[in-house]
Each structure stands twice: as structure tokens, then as C-alpha cells.
Design a protein that fits this description.
Layout: H1 10-20, H2 40-49, H3 57-72, H4 86-113, H5 116-132, H6 135-145, H7 154-167, H8 171-200
Helix pairs in contact: 1-2, 1-3, 1-4, 1-6, 5-8
């Protein structure tokens, strides 16, 4: 079964939190639930109470996979973000940025694992999954939460954050990440050209 994919996990985190907050107060326990089996409320506790950068790689990857699945299964954005305290919102954004970077670097690895002839197809599938998962709507909500105007173009809105993620990489890894970003933009441009010629024809 193909692994679920989505673009930049801070978007996925936003969808989960905004969907769950309206239900009322959160229940906290000393022991954190298993991220692989926790319900949505349990996942939310991870996102707003723990610094995920300090967790094990296994926990980070489990949370990443679960959040992608939940978004693909229909999580949507509503107007509940104000239900979070300032501390919870700050922790959410830190965790979103950390897992977003983790997701992005995994996509870089997946891209370069493809043979040259398959890379364009891989990017097409990735872009389709992003739009079909409702991530664009989530991005707009998170940008508004951070005090910025929501970008008209989802991919353009991610550019600055991706640049921040790649600054800290070693030179070879940074070069790969930059090539991946360029390939994504090239694929988007090709789609635009195809749509333009199709509509004019």
C-alpha cells in the first residue's frame, strides 16, 4: 500500500488542532498515549504539550504518519483555533515547523530515490495529493494564525519556510533540497502551461 503523503506537516498539524479544539477542554494524563494508536484527542495532546524535537525518531515518524492519514481521511478546518491558550499555540507552531521540516526532507529522499524517468511522475502524484487533501485551506488558516495574510498561492507561501529549513543543512544535503524545490516549481509551471494551451485550444 502506498504511503500517504502531504506537503509540509505544519499544515497537517493545523488541520488536526483546528478540527479538535471545539470539542471542549482537553484531558491530560501523566503518561502520553501511544502515537500509533491514540485517538484524535490523544494526538492533539502530543502536539500542544510536548516538544517533539526532543522525542525519539520513532515517535516523530509515528505522529507524522498518523497526522497525514487523519488529514486524508477528512479532517477539515473550522474556526476553533482561539480555543488554544497562547502557550499551546506556541507549542503547536514549534512542533508544526519541526515535523514540517522532517516531512520535507523525507520527500527530498523519496525524490532522489526515483530513477530519472520516474521523477516527474512522482512530483505529479505528490502535487495531486497535496491539493486533494485540503492542505491549501489549512495553510491559509495557519498563516492567519501566525498573523500573516494568507497567500494566494499555497506553494509560494511555503517558499520562505522551506528556505529556513534548508539553511541548516550540510552543503550536499542543501543542494539536494534546493534541486527538489526547483523540480517542484518546474512541475507546477509545466502544469500551468498545459492548462493554458488546453483552454485556448
Amino acid at each position: 500500500m502506498r504511503k500517504p503523503s502531504g506537503f509540509v506537516l505544519f499544515l497537517l498539524l493545523g488541520a488536526l488542532v483546528l478540527s479538535m479544539c471545539a470539542g471542549g477542554a482537553f484531558l491530560y494524563a501523566t503518561r502520553m498515549p501511544d502515537p500509533a494508536t491514540a485517538d484524535l484527542r490523544g494526538l492533539l495532546r502530543w502536539l500542544v504539550t510536548r516538544d517533539l524535537s526532543r522525542e525519539s525518531t520513532e515517535v516523530q515518524e509515528q505522529l507524522l504518519t498518523r497526522l497525514e492519514l487523519e488529514l486524508r481521511n477528512g479532517l477539515d478546518v473550522d474556526g476553533a483555533r482561539d480555543q488554544l491558550s497562547e502557550i499551546q499555540q506556541a507549542q503547536l507552531l514549534e512542533n508544526a515547523d519541526f515535523l514540517g521540516r522532517l516531512w520535507f526532507l523525507k520527500q527530498v529522499d523519496r525524490y532522489f530515490a526515483q530513477i530519472d524517468a520516474q521523477r516527474l511522475r512522482f512530483l505529479d502524484q505528490l502535487i495531486d495529493e497535496v491539493h486533494q487533501s485540503g492542505i491549501a485551506k489549512t495553510l491559509s488558516a495557519l498563516m492567519a494564525q501566525e498573523g500573516h495574510a494568507a497567500p494566494g498561492n499555497m506553494w509560494a507561501g511555503l517558499r520562505e519556510r522551506i528556505q529556513q529549513w534548508t539553511i541548516r543543512l550540510e552543503p550536499q544535503r542543501k543542494a539536494q533540497a534546493e534541486q527538489f524545490v526547483a523540480a517542484v516549481h518546474g512541475s507546477l509551471l509545466l502544469r500551468t502551461l498545459r492548462a493554458t494551451f488546453s483552454s485556448s485550444g
